[in-house]
Amino acid sequence: MKRFFAALLVLLFLMTACGSPAGIGGEVSEESGSPDAPKETELALWTYPVGGWASNSTVSAFVTAFNRTHPEIHLSIRILSYDDGDAEIEKAIADGNAPDLVFEGPERLEANWGARGLMADIGGLWESDAASQIFDSVASACRNSDGTSYIYPICMTTHCMAVNRDLFEKAGAWQYIDESSHTWTTDGFISAVKALNDYGVERIAEVYCGGQGGDQGTRALVNNLYSGSFTDSAHTRYTFNSPENIKALELLKSLDEIYFDDTALGADSIKRFSNGEIAMTFCWNVANEVTETINNPDRDFDIFPLAFPTDDGDVNLQGGIWGFGIFDNGDAGKIEAAKEFIRYIAEDTDSYTQAVLSLTFWPVKDVPNIYENDDLMTEYFALREYLGDYYQVTPGWAEARTAWWTMLQKIGAGADIAEAAAEFEDAANKAAGN
Hints:
The protein is an alpha/beta fold. The chain contains 17 helices and eleven strands.
């Protein structure tokens, strides 16, 4: 399969560019025992499994390269899971042992831990020439209402859904997809589900709601079906309880082949889709295709990335932004050492390019030809034009995420949809202080 080879090319780059990063950085500084040697500093770097950074060896390659110029800064690495990573960090905070550096997105670093006063203000890092090149839309999502920043962004992506192209073609459902634009309509989605069911597919897709993992997919699905919204444009309050969103939930619940699964997370849907157990998944991005292609070399169908169906043609996909934040653990020396590592990744052209490539996502600034001649990455990059509002920085976000999957569980169990939507919005706005 042509997409299989494209994914392998990405993997080969990671192995060569990041597995042996000898060309990154300069010579090691003087021995630490010299009179003018910098102070030895121990830092804990915890990263969520973002793209290729789900691999300890990939992250370690950048730490090793960094130590060529900063041998005095020692970083331990811990790869978190999206299933229980938040709980691990909350426990570490409660125990007074929070990590020094965390790699994640504004919804956690800015809107959660930053808003709670737990993060160090790293606004000074935004004064560099490299930072001035960051896209305005990304920069605005990485600052709170008073301009304070607790995250320095490194990469971004567009979350989407994906379908089993071979199965769609065999079932006569492919006709409802616009291949050139990677879009389809709500009516087309309904017709495709019927065609797949008529063909004999019983479990077509899942509204997974066993927890918050992958919830960006279910939110985008519901909001796009009938042009609903999740928050106001100023990101001050939640606006989900609307006729449009209730209609979307009613549609999904009425489709027997779309299962409300309160035991599944987004990762489960990804695995089942990749194994051919379901015809489509609402939790997908380019890193998923690379990883799942490598993990499933015997897969016998083509994957087609797709925008969520919409009734008016105005697609709003959920974006992902990831970068570094620093917990303020009361040690100014550690904060400065952590900033040095961020500068190394973000401000050195070679290390920044290799970091983005290793993550298998997109740069947050213009890096010409970064994925030149890569058909797979180019195909996904085209979806960037459908990026919608980055509303994940709305206050009360952590509580809103819990209220979201709890609402889906209730609906799956037969609760009144309008009542469940109202309860969700009330809980989310209460958490936001409204």
